[in-house]
């Protein structure tokens, strides 16, 4: 549904070139939610603008629903853009228009008949949970309600794709959860393909099926959420499944272990301790569910003199990822 191939965007500042996107490639299948995460300046907003051709890529291609936007011109490009709904950080509503009029705006641009507009607007406001707020102005709505109007407006042209640029970063935690639930529900109900640009890992954990880490205009990690989380040595894994800091006790080796799926519900660590006759010290731990898979993440310390290699092999054989965090000290 969304295919980006070797996308580059280079800006010129005086005699200097600034590379905002440096060979970005990704594919998002129909009906899924993909997250792009990265710090400020990573190139996230530039990527959104290039995906909609609001900013022309220096090179590379963007294809949405089989239409190559980067090769489209004028009328064809405008038609392709109407199949893309945009959700912004601050909703970007027109203050002088009511909620209904804001949702109607995209339909008015393409000269939709008035009766059809009224029917469509009523349907969309009900869909996003704002039935009865048709005549309210943005100043009379909460932040979450304004974002719901923005979502309804994005759906007005019956898009195949939703591009969400920091859709919840201006909202409180409760409202964030409500908006993410709405996006997830709409994705399933309308069979949308959704790309979420965010710097908030909680958004990725909450609704995404897959994720990419963007750094300095490059995708440095990418994959299904479950696969990325299970990569104990990966940077995204440590932020998806964080462990609280903990002090070691004694001189024994410290291991970080990660287990998921069936092994997450089995007493793997207890069995290993019995097998090797070890008293293991659990320094920190967490259990979370990501994309329908349960993960257990622990940091443990072995007693001095323990056979670390044999224990690691045993745990690996049980489907557990193992990483040495601190070697035994003398």
UniProtKB/TrEMBL annotation:
InterPro entries: AAA+_ATPase, ABC_transporter-like_ATP-bd, ABC_transporter-like_CS, ACT-like_dom_sf, MetN_ABC, MetN_ABC_transporter-like, NIL_domain, P-loop_NTPase. Keywords: Amino-acid transport, ATP-binding, Cell membrane, Membrane, Nucleotide-binding, Translocase, Transport. It holds the Pfam family NIL. It comes from the Bacteria. Residues 2-241 form the ABC transporter domain. SUPFAM superfamilies: ACT-like (SSF55021), P-loop containing nucleoside triphosphate hydrolases (SSF52540). The keyword Translocase applies. One of its GO terms (molecular function) is ATP binding. SMART domains: AAA, NIL. This is ATP-binding cassette domain-containing protein. It comes from Arthrobacter sulfonylureivorans.
